[in-house]
Amino acid sequence: MLLDYGLSLLLTLLTVCITGIAGESYQTSLTFNDILPEDPKLYDKMRPPKKDGQPTTVLFHVTVMGLDSIDETSMTYAADIFFAQTWKDHRLRLPENMTSEYRLLEVEWLKNMWRPDSFFKNAKSVTFQTMTIPNHYMWLYKDKTILYMVKLTLRLSCAMNFLIYPHDTQECKLQMESLSHTTDDMIFQWDPEVPLVVDEHIELPQLALVKNNTADCTQVYSTGNFTCLEVVFVLKRRLGYYLFHTYIPTCLIVIMSWVSFWIKPEAAPARVTLGVTSLLTLSTQHAKSQASLPPVSYLKAVDAFMSVCTVFVFMALMEYCLVNIVLGDSDPPNPKPHPPPKMDRFFDFNAPGGKNGKRNSKSLENSETTTVNTFQRQESTLLLSPVPHIQTIPPPPCKPASAIPKLTPAQIRLRRAINIDRFSRVFFPLLFTLLNTAYWIMFYEYI
Ligand SMILES: *[C@@H]1O[C@H](CO)[C@@H](O)[C@H](O)[C@H]1NC(C)=O
Ligand SMILES: *[C@@H]1O[C@H](CO)[C@@H](O)[C@H](O)[C@H]1NC(C)=O
Ligand SMILES: *[C@@H]1O[C@H](CO)[C@@H](O)[C@H](O)[C@H]1NC(C)=O
Asked: Please, what are the domains in the chain?
């Protein structure tokens, strides 16, 4: 009884074991020949499966997991993608007893099968990752459709135009073309259901992904038409960075240069220093504004802005130059020490007449003629000489006149200089505001 029971247990165990082994052997026994036609000679891996002579359709699907490293200097960007190609090869045989919807195949078999020869047209480098296992797989569906999926990191070139930088929008593409099959043999098409998936959480430091779409870029070459598909990313530059690091500081520097108009004209060191410092700071700002850009030969929007600001600061410095010219070479207090020697000479002429009584009348005549002469000479020099001489000579004849409330030439010049400053105080801010408004209206639509 006990032996019987033991025997039956052993038997059931044995059958379980055998069926288990049989099941497992079915799982691993699939070889490449199992999916090839009965006569492997009929299968030519170099010939696309053109059913009824129609070009083979390869469906594409791209999942973009990441976009980054947008580099303006080299005009490249990096993308992490899942790239799926689906095609139907009617020549293949389905493995026996295939119950599931699809079956995982060994990727190595692809080498001996026909496969689409797509390549990334604008890629500078393609990285295929092998950790922890090579990042690709192949599925065989029940309807002899093959899906080949691969994860890639691509470094792609993107032609960028910086004409309206930093208000620019760049269009970066990811193009996939057939290397050796013309449209007669093979056609790429976007997956009709889900052609493209772009991760919603893509964050770029300076740009925003505003649009993503798929397109066809089939090319006509001398050898024929080659099928090509592309993904287009529309990237819009965010203005925030430039607003806070370029536009606002630059405007503040220009405004700072106007402080000069409120400093009195005599304070030359203060005004010149202010102007020169503003100019230097601005040139640093300008250099910083295009540190990450390639040196392009055309004028960018930011260049135009910076140039106008530089001109403004330069004009503020020049305005002081004008004020200084109007003010004259020497300061108003200077003429006072000058006249005394002349007065002395004046007295010296009179002195000899005072000493000798006899020649009194004669010397008086003499002195009168000399004084007239000196006056005439002074008048002639006054008329002939330009601004600088006017200051040094006139005080003696003016002295009696200044008793009557009248401005000295120095004061007149100072008044003129101050008037120039007063005009600049209004004119510069007004013109700057006007130009700034024009600039922002012009680029409003790009913001
Ligand atoms: C497939 O299934 C049939 C019956 O369902 C069976 O007779 C056959 O042996 C199976 N083939 C393989 C390879 O397991
Ligand atoms: C990509 O485009 C689709 C359809 O135009 C849109 O629904 C999706 O939000 C876009 N994705 C991103 C990240 O912009
Ligand atoms: C290639 O494409 C052009 C225009 O798309 C078409 O006119 C031409 O017939 C095509 N050539 C072939 C060989 O398909």
From this structure: 33-237 (2.70.170.10), 241-330+423-446 (1.20.58.390)
